[in-house]
Amino acid sequence: MFVNREKHLKTLNDEFNKIGFTFTILYGRRRVGKTRLIKEYIKDKKAFYFLSSLENINITINRMKDELANFYNDDLLKQIQINDIKTLFLYVANKIDEKIVIVIDEFQYLAKLDNSIPSQFQYICDEIFKNKNIHLILCGSIISMMYEYTLSYNSPLYGRRTSAIKLEALEFKYLKDFFPNKTKNELIEIYSVFYSIPKYLELINDKGDIYENIKANILNPNSYLYNEASFVLQNEINEPITYFSILKIIASGEHKIGNIASKLGKSPNNITSFIDKLIELDIIYKIIPITEQNPEKSKKSLYFIKDNFLRFYFAYIFTYKSQLELDNTDYVINIIKTSFMEFISRVYEDLAINYLLNTHKDLLKCGRWWDKNTEIDAVGVAKDYLMVAECKYKNKAVGTNVLEDLKAKATKIDSNLPIKKYILFSKSGFTNDLKALASDEIQLIELL
Fold first, then answer.
1. How many CA atoms lie within 13 A of 442 on its CB side?
2. Per the confidence metrics, is the pTM higher than 0.85?
3. Structural domains in the chain?
4. What is the rounded CA–CA span in Å between residue 284 and residue 241?
5. Strand order of the sheet with strand 47-51?
6. What are 175-204's pLDDT values in tens digits?
7. Of 134, 165, 183, 336, which residue is 20 to 30 A from 439 by alpha carbon distance?
């Protein structure tokens, strides 16, 4: 299934429709749908697609040469010996007489095999392709390596691209395209565990509940996703023990750097570089209270795992892997069931924040707020007012007591702006007493 990549397709097609040479860097985490996007883009175009792999560089060049020979039906190219990428594309460039797309997928592997590859592609861009009607796409799934080889200031390819696409997971709202028969609550459950990575979503049995799908696709040591987190992270980081330990601690609910360091038996200064690297790789993100006036100087930072699947993995699979290796799947699934509602609550809050941003266009920003004693799930900041929100992901209708608690907590916010709206989100609806209070000022929202 190909879902919601219209803006990315438009970017690629805009590049194709330009006259002359264009160059796109396309990157994003494993299984996010990069190759599927490329295939959709090139399906009606003349295009050469090559998938790099970790094999000997001479074998790789010969394989690319043979595939280009087949593409152009060129027997001479098959027979001649070519020892580098630059010479190969110099030969091919002379055959180009119409607009063509050239895709090198998993480019980071090619560059890893031969550290001269980025310099060779610099020459290809600057000298061989510069006057040709070509759209070159270099695509990769190891973000740190793609950045190093193509986007960083020190890369020979820096400044050559005409566009760059970082492909992210799908937005939550598109999950219904995969599962039209699922309820909103079921979609939130799926999103909380499998995130919105297309490949992961394709594994889900539409007729099974969330626990059946977790058991079949994640907890089974022979399943596709059992070791997926290791595959995603192993090429990005050099010291997996420390990084994995940090992610496990964050997934368990500890978000302050001092407390994370304490659980590792280290000082905060000793883990700062690891935290910064995880942020750079887009694995974790930092938040501060949304009303902070000088966010860069704030000492109230909290750290969260961005990818819901990785968060689920480090909360349950990594923690209980020894039990899973002994086939004690029921033991682990029972642990998941006892804490699953709380696990989903954090995701539900994130969805509520995004909902407020999407439905209230006058908001300048929206996010969590806290001080030493008080937490508010979402605070929206407009030019001349605030809105505050509480999220309850529980099997119980929300009553007036939650509204009163929210109003009391809102008085603690350090802002001169008046509070215009109180918004309550609930998984299980609202009591009749609370419904009677609903107004423009007090808004009640069930599942998003």
1. 15
2. yes
3. 6-166 (3.40.50.300), 174-344 (1.10.10), 360-445 (3.40.1350.10)
4. 16
5. 47-51, 100-105, 134-140, 22-27, 163-166
6. 999 999 999 999 999 999 999 999 999 999
7. 183
